[in-house]
Design a protein that fits this description.
The protein has two domains: 2-89, Elongation Factor Tu (Ef-tu), domain 3, CATH 2.40.30; 91-202, Rossmann fold, CATH 3.40.50.80. The chain has 281 residues and is α/β, with parallel strands linked by helices. It starts with a strand and ends with a helix. It contains nine helices and 17 strands. A hairpin with a 2-residue loop joins β1 and β2 (14-20). Helices cover 31% and strands 31% of the residues. The strands form four sheets. Strands 12-11-10-9-13-14-17 form a seven-stranded mixed beta sheet, with helices on both faces. A five-stranded antiparallel beta sheet has the order 5-6-2-1-7. The protein has a three-stranded antiparallel beta sheet with strand order 4-3-8. The chain has helices spanning 22-27, 68-74, 109-122, 142-148, 167-177, 189-199, 235-238, 249-256, 260-279; strands at residues 2-11, 14-20, 33-37, 45-48, 51-53, 58-64, 81-82, 84-89, 100-106, 127-133, 151-156, 163-164, 180-186, 206-209, 225-228, 231-234, 241-243. α3 (109-122) runs parallel beside α4 (142-148) and α5 runs parallel beside α6. The longest helix is centred in the last third of the chain and has 20 residues, at 260-279. The protein is globular and about 55 Å long.
Length: 281
């Protein structure tokens, strides 16, 4: 059992949790992830790590209530426990040296880029961050990213905070004004695809994280199969980071939609369960 020792609401249906997992906290590296199972009847879901404390033995997770399990997870409180936390899984993020490293987080992805940003800055590299969100209230962990970067630019779709527009608008300006040696983008697939399409003509090495399509997390189930550079890869075992210029985004998008009907049914169950708990005196 892994106890939740801290909880903070960051945005609507978005929380930060600190969870006890001492063995993982001592071993994990930027870019790696975990698989959690809330209880013995629960499904396994992958989660990125936004930070850890090896001395305290805790992991910091950013959880967005999207599906059945993630909504159950954000309803947990300090003192509650998670049955299984497996990791560290996947491979350490490696970025080519030279020039500035630009870290781009879309929505929940902002948490996932912070460990790599800290590592790159500790190595003496200039690190620039970009945070993208639909609205001001959905901008996550801006202060944490600023602590890891020399500069941070915020974009919102509606212009309610920072610059109105997309992360690619901010990235284009950065590319025009300084030597960019590498880009790491984590977030929704359309965002990662747009970033990759922007950097490709400039020959800027670009890594994207594909952990959102995982199920098993060990390479056994094949649910996270992707095509990268014309070859079959498994996001959980070979990734989660891949060369954004080589990912088959059309196939990736189709695979993301594989379980939409099942996910919708699961949310119907969650809503009924939630209504039942609310109605109980």
């Amino acid at each position: 059992m892994h106890k939740i020792v801290y909880k903070k609401e960051l945005a609507p249906k978005t929380v930060m949790l600190k969870v006890e997992a001492p063995w993982i906290a001592r071993k994990i590296q930027p870019g790696q992830f975990i698989i959690v199972r809330l209880d013995e009847h629960g499904e396994r879901i992958p989660l990125s790590i936004s930070g850890w404390d090896a001395e305290a033995g805790t992991l910091r997770l950013i959880v967005v209530g999207v599906g059945y399990t993630s909504n159950k997870m954000i309803a947990l409180n300090e003192g509650d426990s998670i049955l299984d936390v497996v990791g560290p899984l996947g491979r350490h993020t490696h970025l080519p040296e030279g020039g500035a490293a630009v870290m781009i987080g879309g929505g929940y992805g902002t948490g996932a880029i912070i460990p790599s940003a800290l590592e790159q800055r500790k190595a003496g590299r200039r690190v620039v961050g970009i945070v993208g969100a639909r609205t001001k209230e959905l901008v996550l962990l801006e202060d944490d990213l600023r602590a890891a970067c020399a500069d941070v630019f915020v974009t919102t779709d509606d212009g309610s905070y920072g610059r109105k527009g997309l992360v690619t608008d901010a990235l284009k300006d950065i590319i025009d004004n300084e030597d960019v040696g590498a880009v790491l983008a984590v977030g929704p697939v359309p965002m990662m695809r747009a970033v990759s399409e922007l950097t490709k003509p400039h020959n800027i090495p670009t890594m994207v994280s594909l952990n959102a399509i995982m199920v098993d997390g060990t390479g056994m189930c094949g649910a996270c199969r992707v095509t990268v550079g014309g070859k079959i890869r498994f996001a959980c075992y070979d990734g989660p980071d891949f060369d954004g210029h080589l990912v088959d985004y059309k196939e990736l998008t189709m695979r993301q939609r594989t379980y939409l009907k099942q996910e919708a049914k699961a949310m119907e169950v969650f809503n009924r369960e939630s209504a039942g708990r609310t109605a109980t005196p």
